[in-house]
């Protein structure tokens, strides 16, 4: 799989295919055709088909539209919430930096 001239790492390709399969399974569990879900999500049927086939070129906005059309946008949002993870809960009370710079850019006083 290649996107804009860059090869996609195998793990990413597997994740894209798995995501597409999961979206297709959710669609079928909801008894929706691709045309119905595309209409409900305000995306083209071709976009939905590309997502279900593991195409990495589908925009994040269109992915979120489709998840909303399936009624699982909140589930997705909770799944990526950093404070739902063990490390997020452990660091909940710590103040996060406004930005993170690479270590090579930091001055000696910041190390």
Q: Nutshell version of this structure?
A:
By secondary structure, this protein is mainly alpha-helical. It has helices spanning 10-29, 34-41, 45-52, 60-70, 73-79, 86-90; strands at residues 2-3, 6-7. It has six helices and two strands; from the N terminus they run E-E-H-H-H-H-H-H.
Write up this protein.
By secondary structure, the protein is mainly α. It contains six helices and two strands; from the N terminus they run ββαααααα. The chain has a two-stranded antiparallel ribbon with strand order 1-2. Strand 1 and strand 2 form a beta hairpin. Helix 2 (34-41) crosses helix 3 and helix 2 (34-41) crosses helix 4. It is globular and about 45 Å long. The termini are far apart. The model has no long low-confidence stretch (mean pLDDT 89).
Could you name the key traits of this structure?
111 residues; mainly alpha; two-stranded antiparallel sheet
Reported for the largest beta sheet, the result is: 2 strands, antiparallel
List low-confidence stretches: none
3D shape: globular
Helix content, binned percent = 40-55%
Given the structure, what is the number of helices?
6
The helix-and-strand class reads: mainly alpha
Q: Give the strand content.
A: under 5%
Radius of gyration: 19 Å
| Strand order of the biggest β-sheet | 1-2
How many beta-strand runs? Answer: 2
User: What separation lies between the terminal Cα atoms?
Assistant: 41 Å
What's the order of the H and E elements? EEHHHHHH
Query: What value does the average pLDDT take?
Result: 89
């Amino acid at each position: 799989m290649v996107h804009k001239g860059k090869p996609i790492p195998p793990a990413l390709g597997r994740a894209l295919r798995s995501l597409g399969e999961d979206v297709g399974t959710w669609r079928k569990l909801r008894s929706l055709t691709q045309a119905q879900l595309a209409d409900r999500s305000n995306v083209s049927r071709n976009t939905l088909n590309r997502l279900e086939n593991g195409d990495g070129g589908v925009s994040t906005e269109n992915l979120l539209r489709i998840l909303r059309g399936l009624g699982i946008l909140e589930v997705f949002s909770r799944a990526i919430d950093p404070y739902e993870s063990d490390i997020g809960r452990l660091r909940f009370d710590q103040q996060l930096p406004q930005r993170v710079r690479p270590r090579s850019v930091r001055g000696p006083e910041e190390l």
